[in-house]
Amino acid sequence: MAKKTEVTVEEKLRALYDLQLIDSRVDEIRNIRGELPLEVEDLENEIAGLQKKMDDFQQELNDFEFQTKEQKNRIEVAKEEFKKYEENLKNVRNNREYNSIVKEQEFQELEIQLAEKKIKEFITKRELKTETIDLLAVKLKERNKHLDAKKSELDEILKETEKEEGILAKKSAEFETKIEAQLFAAYKKIRGNVKNGMAIVPIERGASGGSYFTIPPQIQMEIASRQKIITDEHSGRILVDAELAQEEKEKISALFSKK
Description:
By secondary structure, the chain is mainly alpha-helical. It has helices spanning 9-33, 36-88, 95-176, 181-193, 217-225, 242-257; strands at residues 200-204, 207-208, 230-231, 238-240. The protein contains six helices and four strands; from the N terminus they run ααααββαββα. Strand 3 and strand 4 form a beta hairpin. The relative contact order is 0.14.
């Protein structure tokens, strides 16, 4: 049975630094996108809310229309009833019957007046609601236009970076296999704790990248030997020598150039 090849510390450092370069490039891509994805999501939510209002208002209009028809039907029924009582007046036999029929007619007239009053109210409400709907439609159109512009902008960025992101994801998974889970978890933790996401930095002018704290010559020699994982005592970041960093940058740059 073939013996499993052990990954050296140097290979781990190179894989870690490659991951760092890839993650940094992904950060750049996300910075290019900026707040666009969130802006698109917010606009979509706002438009959904406006559309829900529009649907509710339209339903109210439909209700006003239905209620208006109901009142018109009541008017027609009341008119028919009034005519019927008008015919009955021709056959009254005494004052009692006459007064009873007249009262019924008066009731039907009141029914007509009440229905007409309600119809006027529904017409007024419908006019006001229509004005509101028209204003909402203008706003909805404007927000949809804004959303289309933002989506177009985002799609253009995604189109430009889609292929590169696919390469980055594939290579990231490849480099991750060379790092044991504990070390990878440490890298992720450090990366999450620093502002610029740089968990691994090279030595620059005797100090860790982006730092003013000088690293003792002995420690620099140990870092250059690539025999063990060494972290900066001030920032906790993993350190690599400048030569290794440059070699990996050139390798990853060549990868980016193929996008």
